[in-house]
Amino acid sequence: MLDTFGRNIDYLRISVTDRCNLRCRYCMPEEGVEDIGHGNILGFEEIERIVRAAVSLGFRKFRLTGGEPLVRRNIVSLVERIAAVRGADAPVMTSNGVLLSRMAADLKAAGLCRVNISLDSLRAERYRRITRGGVLADALAGIRAAEAAGLLPIRLNVVAIRGFNDDEVLDFARLTLEHPWDVRFIELMPVGEGAAGFGLAYIAGHEIEAALDGFVPVSGKPGGAEVARYCRYPGAPGRVGFISPLSSHFCGDCNKLRLTADGRLKTCLHSNREMDLRPALRAQEDAPLLALLREAVLSKEARHRINEGEAPVRRGMNRIGG
Ligand code: SAM
Ligand code: SF4
């Protein structure tokens, strides 16, 4: 469905939980999250109903995220439900990978297409520090399991933070010389209180690109909901990508809405505006739900203004669905 700026909004990111088995310092408070109560979390039937309604408006792409989507009980069955919706592409997921070694094969069998895995350090002690206790070997085992299960292509998302992991940029980039993976550097965004503690520590994509000797841009957009720019070392099997929401606006190509675990629709990651879908979900007929989805698309902001002093959003990334 087209919004008022001519963008085709066809992508819904669905946060299935705000809980997580890690506590990344820029994302979540150390003590975890307040319980939002089982009754306030959307059930699988409700999520499936929203997906079906969205498909009827022209949405095609659905990504499960969180929090950590793999800690939601029976997540495999939600994948199965969404994969079975006619008109929807096979669902995709964003995960920290820690539980993937156990679950990748079942997720693939349920119809998951691929998974983006978040990994901010290749050094065990540093990984433990940024995640407040995570075990690097678990995440690496998850990557291997995803690859073995055919959840391809493997995409690693690295939040690049000045003074924290900037000395690992080349190590991450070198992974693409050996593996057919996309390694994507993401700029740290001022979302929620966790990120606020890091101030302006983001590293612009073009700074990293400038440090990658011999890599050449990959021309054209690989298609779909792709917001990354890519480069590649000539002959290498993998690519390095840059997701640069701060240093280079890609709002003009934004094609998504976000659904929080407690049933709020967000039209922009950087806006505090939320539309509560739960009253509409209580109605038998779909008309109120369709009306809210349409209204969300038609009221989607032209662009974020975080570089112009706009206040950061209050919800942390774990509560929005990154
Ligand atoms: N737990 C899953 C994971 O880590 O992949 C899914 C949810 S997590 C919120 C999704 C992505 O958002 C991760 O790649 C994470 O690094 C990223 N993220 C979290 N807070 C961020 C921030 N302030 N700026 C940029 N990316 C952020
Ligand atoms: Fe959990 Fe992902 Fe946030 Fe890290 S980035 S705390 S893994 S939700």
Write the layout of secondary structure elements.
Layout: E1 11-15, H1 44-56, E2 61-65, H2 75-83, E3 92-95, H3 100-110, E4 115-118, H4 124-131, H5 136-149, E5 155-160, H6 169-178, E6 182-187, H7 192-196, H8 205-211, E7 216-217, E8 229-232, E9 239-243, E10 256-259, E11 264-266, E12 275-276, H9 278-282, H10 287-298, H11 317-320
Parallel strand pairs: 1-2, 1-10, 2-3, 3-4, 4-5, 5-6, 6-9
Antiparallel strand pairs: 7-8, 8-9, 10-11, 11-12
Helix pairs in contact: 1-2, 2-3, 3-5
The chain binds S-adenosylmethionine and iron/sulfur cluster.
Summarize the entry for a quick read:
The chain has 322 residues and is an alpha/beta fold. It has a single domain, classed as TIM Barrel. It contains 11 helices and 12 strands.
Give an overview of the whole structure.
There is one protein chain. The protein is of the alpha/beta class and 322 residues long. The protein has a single domain, classed as Aldolase class I (TIM Barrel, Alpha-Beta Barrel), CATH 3.20.20.70. It contains eleven helices and twelve strands. The chain has helices at residues 44-56, 75-83, 100-110, 124-131, 136-149, 169-178, 192-196, 205-211, 278-282, 287-298, 317-320; strands at 11-15, 61-65, 92-95, 115-118, 155-160, 182-187, 216-217, 229-232, 239-243, 256-259, 264-266, 275-276. It has a twelve-stranded mixed β-sheet with strand order 7-8-9-6-5-4-3-2-1-10-11-12. α1 links the parallel β1 and β2 (61-65). The radius of gyration is 19 Å and the shape is globular. The mean pLDDT is 91. The site of S-adenosylmethionine (SAM) has 20 residues, from β3, β5 and α11.
